[in-house]
Design a protein that fits this description.
Elements: H1 3-14, H2 20-30, E1 35-39, E2 42-45, H3 46-62, E3 70-74, H4 79-91, E4 94-97, H5 104-114, E5 118-121, H6 126-132, E6 139-141, H7 144-152, E7 167-173, E8 181-186, H8 187-201, E9 209-211, H9 218-229, E10 234-236, H10 242-251, E11 253-257, H11 263-274, E12 280-284, H12 293-303, E13 307-309, E14 312-313, E15 317-320, E16 324-326, E17 344-348, E18 361-366, H13 378-384, E19 390-398, E20 404-409, E21 414-416, E22 419-421, H14 423-430, E23 436-446, E24 450-459, H15 465-472, E25 485-487, H16 503-509
Parallel strand pairs: 1-10, 3-4, 3-5, 4-7, 5-6, 9-10, 11-12, 24-25
Antiparallel strand pairs: 1-2, 7-8, 13-16, 14-15, 17-18, 18-19, 19-20, 21-22, 23-24
């Protein structure tokens, strides 16, 4: 290939690029006065949001930040969070989204992992940030300081030729070692997730999205970026305010009304109180496996919207299994998953061979929505991406009709109200106490949160649940604290031939 051909090939490849900010700015050009964000009775147009994001991008550059540098954000849901994501997109900077629910040690680990050059922090989170962060990290506080910085900043021109493989977000997910891992999400992944958002859920261009789930989760971040890239409105709520959610459902054309275990029962109660309402909602719900069937039936009937039988992850977005819908008001339905449009799957045995239909195998995924690996974690990346497929750590069976049935988690995880909890992070705390000889944390069904952690221990003296809570306090987020305690003899722990505690057998011992 001669130099001229090489240049042409590079330009041809570059002409296929699509970035988050590039697609967002197309919406700004097409309808600058349309409402992009609604929050606490106030609205912001696409043009205003774009200007504020460019001003924040100018602030980033005034700190000397370069593409690939990290900015940490620790905040409740607010419009500035969206501005930060767009400003990062415009500059090639990576926004590391911190979980404000974490304990000091956990937050310190997450901050240290990504080595940020700047932090954006809300006043509500400032005390926790100050306790956990490196003392020399520059910090911009939302409010007067932030507004003054924007007012004096030179709006930055967005990068035109940013490679879509460039990182945009770091979202944290719990690890089997008990320490959170940082999943790097690229522009390419977010653009693909926007496509999956529309293809697999029936969401229409211009539909509004209610961002009530924490913005440090993919549940809000993926969907609000998808909404802004496709011309819709993001309605920002700081938590599951069911009154505000019901109001929005009555007056807005909504796409995916995301609901998780916990708030669903409260929303049903609110809708019952109001009586019949007229809605235009593409779909509602999530994680049907963890929601009581009667709640799926009633919520979908009250809103006249199909319920999303989802199975995705921070690492994969909505794929691989967020394609099946449960009809509104249906009382007879399957929880089997249909494979999402933008992915391929394999079901593998422990030797990485494809299993026959009907046999359980670990789900391995390939597709454009995938993340770009765990930050600074080469060992895990080497294992989880072996052979060019991402292993999710979940066992499924493939059915004759092409659907798949969930079997169990290879990497045992508890999903409580949308939060991922790995037992190891709790067991690490319990086993550090000299009174405890053995500890295992198992999941227990919960009518409100779907699942909750339960501790099973062998101890040298009698312990109470309050003792376990005291051990966890200060080291773990409150939602990770076990909700029940069982004490058994050390010899009564069921074990495999290699000596590992078999959690599934423990679960059967304490089934209520």
């Amino acid at each position: 290939m001669n130099p001229q051909q090489s240049k042409a090939s590079s330009q041809i490849a570059q002409s296929s690029w699509a970035t988050v900010h590039g697609l967002f700015l197309e919406r700004v050009r097409s309808h600058p006065d349309a409402i992009a964000v609604e929050f606490d009775g106030n609205t912001m147009s696409y043009a205003t949001l774009a200007l504020r994001a460019r001003q924040l991008a100018g602030v980033f550059r005034s700190y000397g930040l370069k593409p690939g540098d990290r900015v940490a954000i620790l905040s409740e849901n607010r419009p500035e969070y969206i501005e930060a994501e767009l400003a990062a997109a415009m500059t090639g900077i990576i926004l590391a989204c911190q979980n404000w629910r974490l304990a000091k040690d956990e937050l310190n680990h997450c901050l240290t992992l990504v080595a940020p050059s700047l932090a954006l922090v809300s006043g509500n989170c400032l005390d926790g940030f100050t306790e956990a962060c490196p003392s020399d990290l520059p910090c911009l506080i939302f409010g007067d300081d932030y507004e003054a910085a924007l007012a004096t900043a030179e709006p930055a021109a967005p990068m035109v030729d940013l490679d879509p493989e460039s990182g945009l977000l770091v979202l944290y997910t719990s690890g089997t070692t008990g320490l959170p891992k940082g999943a790097l999400i690229s522009h390419r992944a977010e653009v693909a997730r926007m496509s999956a958002f529309h293809l697999d859920t029936g969401v229409r261009p211009g539909d509004a999205f209610i961002a009530w789930a924490p913005m440090f989760h993919m549940a809000s971040s993926d969907q609000m970026l998808a909404t802004l890239m496709s011309g819709g409105k993001v309605i920002v709520l700081d938590g599951p305010d069911v009154g505000a959610i019901a109001d929005a459902a009555e007056r807005q054309r909504l796409g995916w009304l995301l609901m998780m275990p916990g708030p669903i029962a409260n929303l049903i109660e609110e809708l019952r109180r109001r009586g019949p309402i007229k809605t235009d909602i593409a779909c509602v719900g999530a994680m049907a496996d963890l929601v009581p069937r009667h709640e799926i039936t009633e919520l979908s009937a009250l809103l006249n919207a199909p319920y999303v039988n989802s199975f995705g992850a921070t690492e994969t977005g909505l794929p691989p299994g967020t394609f099946a819908m449960i009809a509104p008001g249906s009382t007879e339905f399957s929880l089997d998953k249909r494979i999402s449009t933008l992915c391929q799957i394999r079901l593998l045995d422990e030797n990485d061979n494809d299993v026959p239909n009907g046999d359980p195998g670990e789900m391995a995924v390939r597709g454009p929505t995938l993340f770009s690996g765990y930050w600074a974690n080469e060992a895990t990346n080497t294992t989880d991406f072996a052979g060019g497929w991402f292993r999710m750590g979940d066992l499924f069976r493939r059915n004759p009709d092409g659907s798949v049935s969930f079997v169990d988690r290879v990497k045992y995880m508890i999903k409580s109200g949308g939060e991922n909890i790995y037992p190891a992070e709790i067991e690490r705390i319990l086993l550090a106490d000299p009174r405890i000889q053995e500890a295992a944390v198992i999941k227990c069904p919960d009518p409100k949160w779907g699942e909750v952690p339960v501790a099973v221990v062998a101890a040298t003296k009698s312990l109470e649940l309050a003792d376990v809570a005291a051990l966890c306090r200060g080291s773990l987020a409150r939602y990770k604290t076990p909700k029940a305690l069982h004490q058994i003899e050390l010899d009564d722990f069921p074990r495999s031939t290699s000596g590992k505690v078999q959690r599934h057998l423990l679960e059967t011992m304490f089934e209520s």
